[in-house]
Amino acid sequence: MLLDALPDGADHDPEVVPAPGSAAYVVYTSGSTGQPKGAVIEHRSLVAFARETAERLQLGAGDRFLQFASPGFDVLVEELFPIWLAGGAVVFPPPAMTGPGIDVTVLVERERLTVMELPAAFWHEWVRELDGIGAPLPGSLRLVIVGAERVLPERLVMWQKLGVPLIHVYGITETTVSSTFFRLPAKASEADLRHLPIGTALPSADLRILDPELKPVPQGAVGELYIGGVSVGRGYLGQPGLTAARFVADPACPGARVYRSGDLVRQRADGNLEFLSRVDTQIKIRGLRVEPAEIESAMCRHPQVAHAVVTVHERAGDDRRLVGYVVARARTRISVADLRRFLGRELPPYLVPSAFVQLEAIPLTTNGKVDHDRLPPPGDEPPERAEEPVPPQTPLEQQLATIVAEVLKVTLVGRNDNFFELGGDSILAIQVVARAQEAGIALSPLDLFEHPTVALLAQAAALKS
Fold first, then answer.
1. 3-state secondary structure of 218
2. What letter would DSSP give residue 136?
3. Helix, strand, coil percent content, the chain, rounded in steps of 5
């Protein structure tokens, strides 16, 4: 983007007016392939998006819109052109007030901002800080837009106390920034707070929810989102093969194209869409489908947890484990053992992370998203125990404690230690049972789930023999 000073006035306007099909900009994105690809957006798409977004956000000449996004991120387009079209001002924050440590509240007050858009991960932290200090928002702020990642229900509850409208947006670089908008009602329903919809489409985005055969799914059914209409970009610069794979023929309109989003959605009875997950990045642990956002939401309900991220760590081969990263609330300390027990009451056993890593802050990219590459791998330190381990009291307990310790790769297992709180899971349970059976101890995997301590497991084995 060229910001050099240019002569002002009609006499200095460009002589050549771009055609609607001319390229307006190119934004590079890596996506799931990891290889940069330049999405080409044409003037017709940009003009339609700017006009419709200005109308949807009710932007006017009195608005002051914060420029927050990185210049290499397509949200920059949403921060510039709609507000310019409406006659408002774009506010570029001074260098001293940018970066990860930016004080958003001070910036809003100083620059009299009326509208701003923040990535969800950054917004989560800001809302937590606001709730912690109980400070009101500056009076100039009339609207906040949030997007990029799933929004935590707990933060929505905190935000509703502040009285400023919130809009949730969803969009893809290849289809001109944002395609759907959802305005959270002042008194939002439990359903909206639990799973914030992505809303309804702009007129330039023709949305289709299709099954694997490219047939429309019934209302309420889950399908992949395809985006058509004026918002669809030209394709990937210099990559015709990749363009053909993602920009596919419109099954309902010969000669037209739709963009295959790779996102699973469903349409509610009120017409709003709900984002569910990615088609190609659904996490599966031992054949079970896992939604990290569901686990993160449960973790954030713990009174000591301020922020949480869940990811998969592969230790060796196909040994994939869920790892939970947590940031403690101010002036508190998280007990991992207590957190495990809390999650055990909130979630099925297979959704409880095998390991937890406590961080001072969740690392973010320059665009404000969670930087998964900078999340440290879990260490080999022994798991935290709620109490000192009690030694086994019988030869059978000693034998079982030794087996469990070997499988979990810990030095000591007490008779009252919970197998799952020490990092065990269903696959490791099978290994424990297999070794026990080799040693002549009659057990089944179900026994370990129903009797997760050495003491209880020994009792179950004794009853069987």
1. coil
2. P
3. 30, 25, 45
Pairing outcome for strands 355-359 and 319-328: parallel
Q: In whole angstroms, what is the distance from residue 360 CA to residue 306 CA?
A: 11
Please give the residue that has the higher pLDDT: either 136 or 10: 136
Q: What's the rounded Cα separation, in Å, for the pair 262 and 338?
A: 37
Q: Residues 53, 82: contact at Cβ < 8 Å?
A: yes
pLDDT for residue 384: 56
User: Given CA atoms 126, 128, 132, 136 in this order, what sign does their dihedral have?
Assistant: positive
CA neighbor of 75 nearest in space, from 134, 124, 120, 20? 120
Nearest to 299 by CA among 341, 259, 271: 341
CATH 1.10.1200.10 occupies which residues in the chain? 395-464
Amino acid type, 317: G
Q: Residues spanned by CATH 3.30.300.30 within the chain? A: 283-374
> Cα–Cα–Cα angle for 311, 312, 316, nearest 5°?
155
Q: Which superfamily is assigned to 283-374 in CATH?
A: ANL, C-terminal domain (3.30.300.30)
C-alpha closest to that of 377 among 293, 305, 301, 316: 316
User: What are the contacts of 286-289 at 24+ separation with CB within 8 A?
Assistant: 286/320, 286/350, 286/425, 286/426, 286/427, 288/350
Ranges of CATH 3.40.50.12780 domains, the chain = 18-278
- What does each C-alpha distance from 24 to 27, 41, 47, 303 come to in angstroms? 10, 6, 10, 48
Burial class (CB in 10 A: 0-12, 13-18, 19+), 66: buried
Q: How confident is the model at residue 318 (pLDDT cuts 50, 70, 90)?
A: very low
| 3-state SS, one letter per residue, for 315-345 | EECCEEEEEEEEEECCCCCCCHHHHHHHHHH
Q: What angle do CA 301, 188, 104 make, to 5 degrees?
A: 65
The phi-psi region of residue 147 (left if phi > 0; otherwise alpha if psi is between -120 and 50; otherwise beta) is beta
Interval 200-238: pLDDT, tens: 999 999 999 998 888 999 888 888 999 999 999 999 988
Question: What CATH class has 18-278?
Answer: alpha beta
Q: Are 228 and 201 in contact (CB under 8 A)?
A: no
- CA-to-CA separations, 33 to 242, 280, 281, 314, 375, in angstroms, rounded: 11, 11, 11, 19, 20
pLDDT in tens, 420-429: 777 776 667 7
User: 408, exposed or middle or buried, with CB in 10 Å at 0-12, 13-18, 19+?
Assistant: buried
Domain 395-464 has CATH 2.40.30.100: no
What's the pTM?
0.65
What is the rounded distance in angstroms from the CA atom of residue 197 to the CA atom of residue 265? 10
pLDDT tens digits for range 290-313: 667 778 878 888 888 888 888 887
